[in-house]
Amino acid sequence: MISINTYNAISQSGLSLIEDDLNYHLNGNGDPDGILVRSKNLHDYDFPASVKAIARAGAGVNNIPIDLCTEKGIVVFNTPGANANAVKELVLANLIASSRNLYSAVGWTNSLRDSEGDVPGVVEAKKKEFVGSEIKGKKLGVVGLGAIGVLVANDALALGMDVVAYDPFISVDAAWRLSQDVKRAHQIEEVWAECDFVTLHIPLTDKTASFVSEGAFGKMKKGMTILNFSRGELVEEDAMAAALESGIVRKYVTDFPNEKVLAMKNVVPVPHLGASTVESEENCAIMATKQLKTYLETGNIKHAVNLPDVELPYSGKMRVTVMHQNIPNMVGQIATVLSGYAVNIADMINRSKNTWAYTMIDLDQKLADDEQAEVKQKMKNITGVVSVRLI
Ligand SMILES: NC(=O)C1=CN([C@@H]2O[C@H](COP(=O)(O)OP(=O)(O)OC[C@H]3O[C@@H](n4cnc5c(N)ncnc54)[C@H](O)[C@@H]3O)[C@@H](O)[C@H]2O)C=CC1
Ligand SMILES: O=C(O)CCC(=O)C(=O)O
Fold it and tell me: Which domain covers residue 170, as residue numbers?
């Protein structure tokens, strides 16, 4: 029996893939083989030794201690692109809503519910206070051209905006999907200096924390609207509060409200709704569950953030998977362990991602139970190996 525990509300479409499979147990015990999670913070989580993989049904993995997991031999997956359309639609909605003062206008109109008197007359008299601007012809800066940023940039062009984008690490795939009419910013300063709106679509990492800092506000075109559907920590809060006070920033639309943010002037707080659509929750849950099950059943890896994609057709005979540091002579040492047994290697693959690597070896016959335990122990004893599975 393979055991999977879930955190957060995972769409039933994904859960059914586990519940309907007789080989699986869902939320059954404290020693799961796999974890399915959305935004729950796992940084203080005490990972049981049973955990082999974590699948994040979503894009951002800053809630998971990736380095610690890797050192414990845990593969961490996410679901690239599965919720990108949901975020894009909410960004576009908020570009227009913030430009047309929609939330304050609707909030004010709702406050008339209990008033007695001539609502149409009051509305006509007041509406001049909510006059907005059109986004057509305005300049939008898109920071980060991954799954979400590319969709936002292309569709903003279709809405008549002038789009300039900054991503020094853009993938070849994303570059193919990006419209040629999106202008490239070589420096982030170009985005701060020129744009009426800036939307952030970068991951939160040690390098991007406080990406929008006091220095950035000093270079901004006055009256800019900033949309943050990425992560709150990308923006330095005290500096943002000052920029909103001084009018450098006209509005700050954020999917990540907290007490400090709610106290700021001209904030549009959204309760982390970027990926909250039925479609996106289904996409993420199905993709995350399938990736997790594939790994647990076959050792094949797709869309891990700490290991490369590694795939071989699974014969069902006997597969050895080894997660290890990307250092010399690992494959040699792993193969040497097997040379002590009467088995042939039928197929083999080794791939690396930065400082970590993964080796899969298919044997043409099953090892006896006592041999399996021995092989596992001998491989675990190799310096640099963090996990060994025999499937
Ligand atoms: N509000 C919500 O519910 C959601 C929020 N997100 C957030 O949005 C982020 C982006 O999501 P995706 O587009 O799916 O990720 P992605 O991985 O497809 O794209 C991220 C892009 O950012 C770029 N990038 C990284 N560092 C950069 C830097 N310093 N300057 C400029 N570009 C940089 C990368 O090259 C990459 O192209 C996620 O990491 C997550 O934090 C994602 C989905 C839902
Ligand atoms: O699961 C969610 O609703 C949050 C989505 C998100 O923030 C992400 O995918 O990075």
Answer: 84-114+121-269
